[in-house]
Amino acid sequence: MASEIEAALAATPSDGPTVFDKILNKEIPSTVVYEDDKVLAFRDIAPQAPTHILIIPKVRDGLTGLSKAEERHCEILGHLVYTAKLVAKQEGLDDGFRIVINDGPDGGQSVYHIHVHVIGGRQMGWPPF
Q1: Which residues make Cβ contacts (< 8 Å) with residue 106, sequence separation at least 6?
Q2: Sequence-distant (≥ 6) Cβ neighbours of residue 51 within 8 angstroms
Q3: Is residue 7's pLDDT more than 80?
Q4: pLDDT of residue 16
Q5: Which of the four pLDDT bands, split at 50, 70 and 90, describes residue 9?
Q6: Does residue 10 register a pLDDT over 90?
Q7: What distance in Å separates the CA atoms of residue 23 and residue 42, rounded to the nearest whole number?
Q8: What pTM was estimated for this model as a whole?
Q9: 28 DSSP 8-state letter
Q10: Residues 6+ apart with CB under 8 A from 8
């Protein structure tokens, strides 16, 4: 967990290209589990549970994090959450799952391209960390 905190603290908020843009452009390989015209869902390379999937919008439109959301982003934000439900069902997470959106350094955000974590396949604890 320390390395994730370090990554979040080292990350620089920016509108510039991110690792997720490279995944969208097929410059970096990923294991895609779902895709439609608005979002891409793929397996996290450092999973925190047996199932750990990231869902990203294909067009960022200034939405680097949830705190940057504006009214114009309501449709894509709803689509991200609905896609989390679809992916969870597809992955067989019938007993439950957690969705997480990290925002800013204190929230643990290390990539400034909004994304939803779908985490499941085990009992989740509270508090989360």
Answers
A1: none
A2: 91, 93, 97, 118, 119, 120, 121
A3: no
A4: 76
A5: low
A6: no
A7: 9
A8: 0.91
A9: S
A10: 102, 105, 107, 108, 109, 110
Q: Are 83 and 97 in contact (CB under 8 A)?
A: no
State both tokens at 50.
């047996």
Q: What is the mean predicted confidence (pLDDT) over 28-38?
A: 97
Place 13 in a pLDDT band, splitting at 50, 70 and 90.
Answer: low
The number of residues in the chain equals 129
CA–CA gap between residue 112 and residue 66 (Å, rounded):
10
| Residues annotated as part of the active site | 115
Q: What is the number of other CB atoms lying within 10 angstroms of the CB of residue 129?
A: 8
Q: Which two tokens stand for residue 119?
A: 């985490």
